[in-house]
Design a protein that fits this description.
Radius of gyration: 27 Å
Shape: elongated
Distance between the termini: 69 Å
Order of helices and strands: HHEE
Number of domains: 2
Strand order of the largest sheet: 1-2
Structural class: mainly alpha
Largest sheet: 2 strands, antiparallel
Number of strands: 2
Strand content: 5-15%
């Protein structure tokens, strides 16, 4: 191997190492920037929702959900739980429940 070929291979190796280090530093830096901007986002409830009993649960991304001041009773339809057993909404009375109706 001649001197110029050795320098060429060494140049590639140094370039790959620099690129790897830059990539390894860029990922945590990008994550930190995104985390900072997300923490600075201000979430506010609509005035009518602030009076709701449910407003205290509206934290983080849940602040985007509507929390009506009056909460009517949900129909007590039967559905299957994750184990395949039939259950009803009434069995969750007194607990905070987020229901994804699209999935039902």
């Amino acid at each position: 191997m001649s001197g110029s070929e050795g320098k060429k291979k060494r140049g590639w190796l140094v370039g790959l190492i620099v690129l790897g280090v830059a990539g390894a530093l860029a990922v945590p830096a990008l994550f930190a920037v995104l985390l900072f901007y997300q923490s600075q986002a201000k979430f506010t409830l609509k005035p009518e929702a602030q009076k709701s009993e449910l407003a205290r649960f509206a934290q983080g991304s849940l602040t985007r959900l509507d929390t009506p001041a009056e909460t009517p009773m949900a129909p007590d339809y039967p559905f299957k739980d994750r184990d395949g057993y039939e259950t009803r909404l009434a069995s969750f009375r007194g607990k905070v429940v987020v229901v994804n109706l699209w999935a039902m």
